[in-house]
């Protein structure tokens, strides 16, 4: 007979096979059930121990014996994975409430592996027995094991919400679960509250269960994130270790006594040592692990000048002493994966527990009813003792006697068997009274069980009573502290820096240098210092460019330099495009924040804004709203008493009070400072402060020195007056100076020339006349003036 071949699509075959595999992993391996909070492997280990008789009050047995029992009967997978699961169920740092009582080496929080299964022993804990207590009352369904030889429970009749109490984690196909452990007392109180009021709000439930409770303690920072995770089933919480400061013999040390959940202590210490090598924890001299049986203790010795608060923040920032714990409350509900809220998980458990208690009552009711029938038969026998004895004596066999009893006394077969099996001592007067009392008690118990089964209130009260018993027996205090202020979880860079006074220099060749003393500032050969900024390490430095951008650089990011260092190139810190050039550098310190920043443009606009406007979390902001073909020529810090001096290319000059310019927000155009003739533009924009003279540079290379007080003060928005007697000269640049200042001249070939301000004659009046010699040794045309900063 020829074979019939049916063609199938390989895509469909692969799809079906993968879906079957995915379903098997999701349902049979990776995800816990919402009812008992266990994955199949955990459930089988507990049931295997139960079958071996490893009760909490009994003796331990070899772990290999337990693994063999579970592996051979229920869980046909790797023995190593099975043993690792058994080990974790016994670890007090992994499980909030261990379900296995381990004897021997079961690993450590340092990541040490447990001893081989042939060396360790285990049994159930008393709390684990509460997971199995109602198993014998036919409360949960059983299914055949993998080879169909015996049965195993599909679920355990858990007496408390184990899914929340011990949490769960697992990776399935396309999904994963991360449910943190919780405090037993709080979870039970939450369950009871929902039993009493099914409409209990999420807010009220969260007051009862404020957050996870990790076995390793520590702190959770931010209650809002917990609430979000509890209501949506997903989120993250910040888990931080616990530390304190100790002082002894003028030495200070930070001591870590608790670490975040699932953090390996050895790796944490290795991470701290790495950060010491990277100089992020340069104030820590050594790290010691002094942990013992009394508890965890990791000691960090500090240098004498260390700021413990900064070291603490750096530990949180750069090591696993602070860790984000993912929450994804995914579990199986009727064999379907479902992300559930805190309230939904407890509601599912409560519904399951009601079903378990009801089935237990039904099972007990059947037993009591059967016992009642027997007791009634025995009472009939006692009441008709002489007749029964005569009937049995006259019967030819047990079968005949049984038939006669059923027929004459109108009893059933069970009762007849009980009478025939009754021993003679039961005929004693005390036994007869005892049977009557048992009969009365049975009737009361049956009445009580029927009421329990039929009454929702009685059922609820019974569950509450049992939950309270578990709470009183196994409850303990919360280990993890919850700090409601979530801002404490954010480790801002400012929290990692010790605020100190520093000096930062900016040179002609765009080099930055930071030092703790002005005396350590120096420039390289063929370079000159243009700015020396005094500020704190938490302040920022502002770099203004001609296109209206402002680049911000935190002072603490600049490397500290020794006295002989010439600094670092600016591009190492800021990526400013080559088409932009810097017009000025300002410190954003307290003085500038509390005053104003003025920006002057080529088209004669003057914009004044509060220094606070330039505080930003980004490195580049817009400093001014420029109109088309306009550009920034000056930016500077301003006080209320300063004058503003503008000089146009055609020599028009105006000086007016800064009070005439109304402060505006940062992203504005500002106000017109000078009315320019067509084709003219502002070439010099200065803030006249303590300096006494203006040095002007013409396009022809002529220079002159003019006293500031000699320039007449006008109103803003005027045309100004001529700076030069020769109106044919074009102004190229200008700089304010005092006596003994040195001026740097830069030509269009980037050559630099130096000139003392005193070498230029001072004029009482404004004009620079033809008698001023051009600087003849220039190789190119002069373009810019700078004032060399005195060191």
Automatic annotation (TrEMBL):
- What does the record give as the active site? 119 (o-(5'-phospho-dna)-tyrosine intermediate)
Pfam families xrefs:
DNA_gyraseA_C, DNA_topoisoIV
Q: Which GO terms describe its cellular component?
A: cytoplasm; DNA topoisomerase type II (double strand cut, ATP-hydrolyzing) complex
Q: What CDD domains is this protein classified in?
A: TOP4c (cd00187)
Q: Which family does it belong to?
A: Belongs to the type II topoisomerase GyrA/ParC subunit family.
What is the superkingdom listed in this entry's lineage?
A: Bacteria
Q: Which organism is it from?
A: Halarsenatibacter silvermanii
Return the broad EC class. isomerase
Alphabetized, the UniProt keywords read: Coiled coil, DNA-binding, Isomerase, Topoisomerase
Among PANTHER family, the record links this protein to: DNA GYRASE SUBUNIT A, CHLOROPLASTIC_MITOCHONDRIAL, DNA GYRASE/TOPOISOMERASE SUBUNIT A
Q: Where are the transmembrane segments?
A: none
> Which stretches are annotated as coiled coil?
425-462
Instruction: Keyword check for DNA-binding, yes or no.
Output: yes
Q: What is its EC number?
A: 5.6.2.2
Example GO BP: DNA topological change
This one is known as DNA topoisomerase (ATP-hydrolyzing)
Its recorded reaction(s) are: ATP-dependent breakage, passage and rejoining of double-stranded DNA
- SUPFAM superfamilies documented for this protein: GyrA/ParC C-terminal domain-like, Type II DNA topoisomerase
- One GO molecular function term? DNA binding
Sequence ranges assigned to domain Topo IIA-type catalytic in this UniProt record: 31-496
